[in-house]
Amino acid sequence: MTTKKLKNIFPIDLYLKVLDEIPDTFGVYTFYHNERPIYIGKSIHLRERIISHFQQAKTDAKERKITQQATHLGWELAAGEYSALLRESTLIKKHLPIFNRKLRRQKSLHFMVLEADDMGYLRPKIKSTERVFDAKLDGYGPFRNQRHRLNLLNQLVSKHQLCAVMLGVEHTKSCFNYQVKRCQGACVGKESAVSHNQRLLSALETYMQQKWVYQTPMMFYEHDKKNHLKQCHFVDRWRYLGVETTTETDSTLDMMPSTQFDLDHYLLLKKIFSDEKIKKIKVPEDIALPI
Ligand SMILES: [Zn+2]
Q1: pLDDT over 70 for what percent of the chain?
Q2: How far does the centroid of ligand 1 lie from the alpha carbon of residue 185, in Å?
Q3: Residue 137 β-bridge partners
Q4: How far does residue 143's CA lie from ligand 1's centre (Å)?
Q5: Ion ligand 1 residue ranges (Cβ < 5 Å)
Q6: Residue 57 sits in which domain range?
Q7: Structural domain contains residue 202
Q8: Cα 160 to averaged position of ligand 1 atoms, centre (Å)
Q9: Which residue, 177, 205, 204, is CA-closest to 191?
Q10: pTM greater than the 0.70 cutoff
Q11: Measured between alpha carbons, how far is 38 from 67 in angstroms, rounded to an integer?
Q12: Which of 207, 228, 256 is the last residue in one of the domains?
């Protein structure tokens, strides 16, 4: 988290006079109703994005509610796009603002692994979250819930002509698609395990969970030289641990209250760790991390 609290708080009816103060760079902003955050957002053009809320309020009912209910506005700068994304997600999870519908706290997640049955056909099985990340297991997901997982399997069945019985979404002897010639017959032994397994593995490839390949916690940083802001983020086994923010005058370490696995952070971190422009560095041992 950044070193400064949300600053420059002012009555919203004065917004036109002060929007000029907001730098048009990476950052996170909060609309408050008195002390309570009601909407949190991020942008790579902070000022422009905040102004757009007021402009859209003329035609959009949700934007109108946000800007009318807001009594205060706060903002803070971030050292880059990823820093802004991580900060936004962290703040939303902390405050659960009423107008942020998406990034909500995650209660339970589903992972899936493939296990061969007696005939050698790979069948999806559900696994719990924590185990999968620590094991050297090829898992798929995560999925927000059971329905999310079944939706994907149903899509794979129709898109790749896979067998619904083998994927566990139909519980009959032979699947419906076999009768209409859209399943190649794994359910009745016409398609071999080798062939169906191969097609299933390739259909699922993009849903494979990213393995944590490092032996230690890792860090990466973003540096906004123009605004003299550097933010260094700490990660361990896809858990986001916190951030060190360094400005011209000081440096602060902000650690997450919980280091539980979180789906939104995982999806963000996965993207960041596959971005070659971002250098991943081993965390020096003298930095105390909450792990
Ligand atoms: Zn079938």
Answers
A1: 87
A2: 5
A3: none
A4: 24
A5: 163, 175, 178, 183, 187
A6: 12-95
A7: yes
A8: 12
A9: 177
A10: yes
A11: 10
A12: 207
> What is the pLDDT confidence band of residue 277, given thresholds at 50, 70 and 90?
very high
User: Is 4 among the domain residues?
Assistant: no
Compute, in angstroms, the gap from residue 187 CA to the centroid of ligand 1. 4
Angle between helices 61-69 and 46-56 (to 10 degrees): 110
253: which 2 tokens? 């370490």
Contact between 82 and 278 (Cβ < 8 Å): yes
What is the side-by-side strand order in the sheet with 122-127?
122-127, 110-116, 140-143
Domain containing 48 — which CATH number? 3.40.1440.10
46's tokens: 């902070």
Residue bearing tokens 């899509």: 155
From edge to edge, which strands make up the β-sheet containing 218-224?
251-255, 239-246, 229-236, 218-224, 281-282
Mean pLDDT over all residues of the chain? 86
Q: Residue 89 is encoded by which pair of tokens?
A: 């997600």
Residue 91 lies in a domain: yes
More confident residue, 129 or 264: 264
